[in-house]
């Protein structure tokens, strides 16, 4: 059995789990739990469903608040059945940092950043891949393959190394060098692809049968979203079981946004929060904004964005399989989608660094630039409390020359 690396040993007892089944996100068709799944028969993401009445009886807000163990503490809301399948690399509850000076400057009530760069491998991808690897072990998978813009590959490589799984990672040839080295160091097999993340995804899909890989592409396997969902659970707890007025999320595949939206429904069903929801804002780069275009047109699905380019590598996703789920969450929440250009992203990165002493990743900086633009346009009110997501450590990216 693998070692428990870190974490609080009081909290690693067997996981009481409440998964009842999986459900096609498009048709609602039911699929059995405890069986290896990719997409549904309709070719759409599968969502994990729980006996939420059982969760309500098993855990209280007070009990959760007393627990340690990073995002694993929300185990009743997660699908892992055996604790021996969980690898711990020092997961933490990520801090919410007040951007007081920036808020004052804009005469805004409250601006905060949830800083996901503090997680293992320096990004929020740790959440999803920790869950995907645990479930892969649970369901007997030994070889994982995945397309990535960098951060997800690093997280897959790290958790796979800890779990003793084989990992095959495909990334665009211009993926930040630090990510490629990090993935290689953790022993994963890296293939650099002359193309974008969707081209990488195609290679994974083509090699799946022949190479015996399990395709761990986001939303093509059902558990990464369960990991990303913990951002919403954490946020609710950190806000004293309420939620901020608006969330700005840097949106590539959109798994985090969809996951948080799912978590809010689950939290309401167990009685931990009421029916008030944040407005969800999908932030993209103007060089790759398929969701923004679809939102503006009122479409349910997003068309492939040609010639995608942006310095914010993590949101350079020309086509997302969960497009309709992102758009649905944005609309249901009465939020919106907004694009910012690379110049605004770089300016935001510098501004937050200088004003707040916080080094953001370009994707996180995009959310700050988007907040400023939305405030100026009147799409966000200065009276609204706002949380921006900084999904990775700024240190993982090439920094501007002094
Ligand atoms: C730093 C960063 N921000 C945002 C994203 C987009 O995340 P999601 O797939 O949940 O939209 C990524 C994905 O690679 C990322 O690495």
Written overview of the protein:
The chain contains 14 helices and 13 strands. It is globular and about 55 Å long. Helix 5 (151-163) packs parallel to helix 6 and helix 13 packs across helix 14. Strand 7, helix 6 (177-185) and strand 8 form a beta-alpha-beta unit. With 402 residues, it is of the alpha/beta class. It has helices at residues 52-58, 61-66, 100-105, 125-138, 151-163, 177-185, 197-211, 224-228, 230-238, 255-269, 290-297, 323-332, 342-356, 362-377, and strands spanning 19-24, 30-32, 46-50, 96-98, 110-115, 143-147, 166-172, 189-193, 214-215, 246-250, 279-285, 336-340, 385-390. The strands form three sheets. A six-stranded mixed sheet has the order 4-5-13-10-11-12, with helices on both faces. Strands 8-7-6-9 form a four-stranded parallel sheet, sandwiched between helices. Bound molecules: pyridoxal-5'-phosphate. The site of pyridoxal-5'-phosphate has 18 residues, from helix 5 and helix 10.
Write the layout of secondary structure elements.
Blueprint: E1 19-24, E2 30-32, E3 46-50, H1 52-58, H2 61-66, E4 96-98, H3 100-105, E5 110-115, H4 125-138, E6 143-147, H5 151-163, E7 166-172, H6 177-185, E8 189-193, H7 197-211, E9 214-215, H8 224-228, H9 230-238, E10 246-250, H10 255-269, E11 279-285, H11 290-297, H12 323-332, E12 336-340, H13 342-356, H14 362-377, E13 385-390
Parallel strand pairs: 5-13, 6-7, 6-9, 7-8, 10-11, 10-13, 11-12
Antiparallel strand pairs: 1-2, 1-3, 4-5
Helix pairs in contact: 4-5, 5-6, 9-10, 13-14
Bound molecules: pyridoxal-5'-phosphate.
């Amino acid at each position: 059995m693998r070692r428990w690396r870190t974490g609080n040993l009081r909290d690693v007892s067997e996981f009481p789990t409440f998964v009842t089944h999986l459900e096609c996100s498009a048709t609602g068709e039911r699929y059995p739990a405890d069986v290896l799944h990719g997409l549904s028969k309709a070719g759409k993401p599968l969502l994990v469903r729980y006996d939420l009445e059982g969760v309500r009886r098993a855990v209280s807000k007070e009990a959760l608040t007393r627990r340690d163990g990073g995002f694993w503490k929300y185990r009743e809301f997660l699908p892992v059945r055996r604790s021996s399948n969980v690898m711990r690399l020092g997961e933490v509850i990520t801090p919410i940092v007040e951007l007081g000076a920036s808020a004052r400057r804009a005469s805004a009530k409250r601006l905060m950043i949830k800083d996901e760069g503090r997680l293992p491998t320096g990004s929020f991808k740790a959440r999803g891949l920790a869950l995907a690897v645990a479930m892969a072990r649970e369901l007997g998978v030994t070889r994982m393959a995945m397309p990535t813009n960098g951060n997800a590959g690093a997280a897959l490589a790290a958790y796979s190394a800890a779990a003793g799984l084989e990992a095959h990672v495909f990334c665009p040839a211009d993926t930040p060098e630090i990510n490629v080295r990090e993935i290689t160091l953790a022993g994963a097999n890296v293939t650099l692809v002359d193309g974008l993340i969707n081209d990488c995804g195609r290679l994974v899909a083509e090699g799946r049968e022949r190479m015996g890989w399990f395709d761990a592409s986001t939303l093509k396997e059902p558990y990464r979203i369960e990991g990303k969902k913990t951002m919403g659970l954490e946020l609710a707890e950190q806000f004293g079981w309420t939620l901020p007025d608006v969330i700005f999320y840097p949106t590539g595949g959109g798994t985090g946004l969809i996951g948080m939206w799912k978590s809010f429904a689950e939290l309401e069903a167990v009685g931990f929060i009421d029916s008030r929801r944040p407005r969800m804002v999908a932030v993209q780069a103007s060089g790759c904004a398929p969701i923004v275009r679809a939102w503006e047109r009122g479409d349910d699905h997003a068309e492939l964005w040609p010639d995608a380019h942006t310095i914010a590598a993590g949101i350079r996703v020309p086509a997302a399989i969960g497009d309709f789920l992102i758009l649905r969450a944005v609309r249901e929440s009465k939020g919106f989608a907004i694009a910012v250009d690379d110049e605004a992203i770089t300016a935001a990165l510098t501004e937050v660094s200088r004003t707040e002493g916080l080094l953001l990743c370009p994707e996180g900086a995009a959310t700050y630039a988007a907040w400023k633009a939305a405030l100026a346009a009147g799409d966000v009110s200065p009276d609204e409390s706002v949380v921006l997501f900084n999904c990775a450590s700024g240190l993982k990216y090439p920094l501007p020359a002094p």
